[in-house]
Amino acid sequence: MSRCFIFGALPVSRLTEAPRESDLIIAADKGYDVALSLGLTPDLVVGDFDSRSEAPEVENLIRLQVRKDDTDVGHAVELGFERGYSDFVVYGAVGGLLDHTFANVVIAHDIARRGGKALFIGEEYSFTVLHNSEKELCPRGGGRISVFALGGTAKGVTIRGLSYETEDLTLRCTDHVGVSNAFIGKPASVSVDEGNLLVVWQTE
């Protein structure tokens, strides 16, 4: 399945997930410079360009107002959905301004609620939101990983291949028992039968 790659404004040193020819690449604001630095040419450039001195001179430009009801990354996700994509990989959008990172968690939650998938990859941490689904992770070494219920109760949470394992756990959105689990050098999986689960782990 083809994926939609979105690049935000934060620096990206390397690609752990790389776009293929059939994938859509969208640069959000200063993400245009980030994509170019990685040798990628965006198919679309969108933003209000408040984090860039000026809009780039490209034909595939969608200019937004600074005063608007969504973020540049959020608008890029909507453009991806409009073009038939439901599997998103987002770089340059984890870290930096804390409120924007929280906004991106909300965006990932909305993507999952709409039946899509979203992987937000940062330099130090990455995250996804699961809705009645499973995520397999195959780290090369150790590192921390945490899970939290979003928007209510997550039922049937199962964790395998980590330092702390669980089967059919119920997590409320006020619980923090899922914080600071750890990889132990073997394939791991996290799943939820009913509800929404935020999964946050250290980027390799």
Chain-wise SSE layout:
Layout: E1 4-7, E2 24-28, H1 31-37, E3 44-47, E4 61-63, H2 72-82, E5 87-91, H3 98-113, E6 117-121, E7 125-131, E8 134-137, E9 144-160, E10 166-171, E11 181-182, E12 188-191, E13 194-202
Parallel strand pairs: 1-2, 1-5, 2-3, 3-4, 5-6
Antiparallel strand pairs: 6-7, 7-13, 8-12, 9-10, 9-11, 9-12, 9-13
Characterise the protein shown here.
This protein has three helices and 13 strands. The protein is an alpha/beta fold and 204 residues long. Strands 1, 2, 3, 4, 5, 6, 7, 8, 9, 10, 11, 12 and 13 form a 13-stranded mixed β-sheet that branches. Strand 5, helix 3 and strand 6 form a beta-alpha-beta unit. The longest helix is centred in the middle third of the chain and has 16 residues.
Number of domains: 2
N-to-C SSE series? EEHEEHEHEEEEEEEE
Classify the secondary structure makeup into a structural class: alpha/beta
Going by CATH, the homologous superfamily of the largest domain would be Thiamin pyrophosphokinase, catalytic domain
Under CATH, the topology of the largest domain can be stated as Rossmann fold
Beta content comes to 35-45%
How do you describe this structure in short?
It contains three helices and 13 strands, in the order ββαββαβαββββββββ. By secondary structure, it is an alpha/beta fold. The protein folds into two domains: 120 residues, Thiamin pyrophosphokinase, catalytic domain (Rossmann fold, 3-Layer(aba) Sandwich); 72 residues, Jelly Rolls.
